[in-house]
Amino acid sequence: MATKKKQVARELLFGDLWEFDPAPETAPAGIADRYGLFIGGEFVAPKSKKWFDSISPRDEAKLSEIALAGQADVDAAYAAAAKAFPAWSKLPRAERGKYLYRLARLLQDRAREFAVAETLDGGKPIREARDFDVPMAAAHFFYHAGWADKLEYAAPGRDLRALGVVGQVIPWNFPLLMLAWKLAPALALGNTVVLKPAETTSITALKFAELIRVAGLPPGVVNIVTGAGETGAAVVRHKTAAKIAFTGSTGVGKWIQRELAGTGKRLTLELGGKGANIVFEDAAIDQAVEGIINGIFFNQGHVCCAGSRLLVQESIEAVVLRKLKLRMKSLRTGDPLDKNTDIGAINSKQQWERITELVDVGASEGAEIHQPACELPKKGFYFPPTLLSGVTQSHRVVKEEIFGPVLSILTFRTPDEAVEKANNTAYGLSAGVWTDKGSKYLAVASQIKAGVVWGNSFNKFDPTSPFGGFKESGFGREGGRQGLLEYGELD
Ligand code: NAP
Ligand code: MG
């Protein structure tokens, strides 16, 4: 009898016995059939006369047709931004703040619609778009609205001046949030902007352009040019730009740095990562397991600061591995529009292929692959949560950023070894430390070369907190006072 009861309890826990009913989000996403470029406060047809399709990775359905900006279009965007700069930068600071508050509130008003659009376009679970991306994007505008008329406190005794026109290129993993990270500080300081979203996720940026119009921002203060890498390159190279802010891959970041050398343009680069999540034997194990899960499976692992290298103290390896496998069984992978989904769609076919290739490489190099049994939707791009054990630091899956729901597990014996292994990477963006001892956290965290080191938590963000990397993860900070200063000239 007891065994039977245990069996039932286990099945309940594992979800073998029952399933959640579907809980689809049904609110309209308000996506137009076609989007032109947003230049000088208007949506305009591209001079290039080229358009591309934007599809949903959820089911490969076409969502919209998007303008592809060529050189002449990027020129027009920079011209509009340059024209808008004198008046915008001279506007009383409190007035600039009001525009930012308005944008934040408008985004809150239409939060549900933006969340659905973000999920459809990028594939992330609606729960994350609704509870993280959209509210955090609004929070960044609120935070920087607050700075706009208090700039004298950002650099006491100095005057902080706008730089001019800023070119910004953002990636596809947090499309709206990255837009907010870039636009809010630039505008608060009085810069004008030419922004290029990623090719696969332009929709929420274009919907945001609608909010810019509703907020009544002067024409040309924000210009949005859509397209792929070539459009991004035209934005980066443009002679009008006083600064380039880029978030994306390390490869493209290096190219941009070479391209800008000697031009005098300011540059900030937010690039890739391979974050270590370190779990000591004295940690609260169940909490740590939740943190490991969140650290790697949040947003399908499309997170530059993901905790993709798990470092577990050898004495607790077996128990952590067992608990992790158990927890992974209860993760629901599938339709991102379902409110119960934990892991949605991989952003694009290309990214799906990269993840698949790297996991295959892991297998051929001898890694043991653990994936819970789960039925994936037939259409769209899906990858199950994956754990790789039996790997060492020389394995490609441990060295390279996979940017997917794939965790590598390694062990260590002493705090010194944990630090050495955590730092044994070309990247330096993030890390996590799980321990019951505050002194151990401080000692370890201070030795890790990473822009952010979370303590007994992971993937926590706040607009007041600067974020950025060391080494091949880039330079410059976004968020907080430090992030604000990157957009100004100190007099
Ligand atoms: P990516 O290929 O570097 O693309 C990033 C952006 O740059 C996209 O808008 C892209 O356009 C554009 N781009 C591509 N080639 C360019 C060029 N030659 N000149 C100028 N722009 C160019 O990176 P991704 O694969 O989209 O994004 C994933 C990477 O971003 C990961 O490595 C991740 O770690 C990193 N990331 C870092 C952070 C951070 O804060 N540190 C945050 C998020 C992501 P298209 O997409 O339209 O081709
Ligand atoms: Mg898309």
Q: Give the structural class.
A: alpha/beta
Query: Which whole number gives the mean pLDDT?
Result: 96
Q: Which residue ranges are poorly predicted, with pLDDT under 50 across at least 5 consecutive positions?
A: none
**What's the CATH H-level homologous superfamily of the largest domain?**
Aldehyde Dehydrogenase, Chain A, domain 1
Number of domain modules: 2
Explained architecture:
The chain is an alpha/beta fold. The chain has 2 domains: 256 residues, 3-Layer(aba) Sandwich (Aldehyde Dehydrogenase, Chain A, domain 1), CATH 3.40.605; 187 residues, 3-Layer(aba) Sandwich (Aldehyde Dehydrogenase, Chain A, domain 2), CATH 3.40.309.10. The protein is built from 17 helices and 20 strands. Strands 14-15-16-13-12-17-18 form a 7-stranded mixed sheet, with helices on both faces. A 6-stranded mixed sheet has the order 9-8-7-10-11-19, sandwiched between helices. β8, α8 and β9 form a beta-alpha-beta unit. α3 runs antiparallel to α5, α4 crosses α5 and α5 packs parallel to α7. The protein is globular and about 70 Å long. The model has no long low-confidence stretch (mean pLDDT 96).
Topology:
Blueprint: H1 2-14, E1 34-35, E2 37-39, E3 42-44, E4 51-55, E5 62-67, H2 71-90, H3 93-109, H4 111-122, H5 126-148, H6 151-154, E6 160-162, E7 165-169, H7 175-188, E8 192-196, H8 203-214, E9 222-224, H9 229-237, E10 243-247, H10 250-260, E11 266-270, E12 276-279, H11 285-297, E13 309-313, H12 317-329, H13 349-364, E14 368-370, E15 386-389, H14 396-399, E16 406-412, H15 415-423, E17 430-434, H16 438-445, E18 452-455, E19 474-475, H17 480-485, E20 488-490
Parallel strand pairs: 1-5, 7-8, 7-10, 8-9, 10-11, 12-13, 12-17, 13-16, 15-16, 17-18
Antiparallel strand pairs: 2-3, 4-5, 6-20, 11-19, 14-15
Helix pairs in contact: 3-5, 4-5, 5-7, 11-12
The structure holds NADP nicotinamide-adenine-dinucleotide phosphate and magnesium ion.
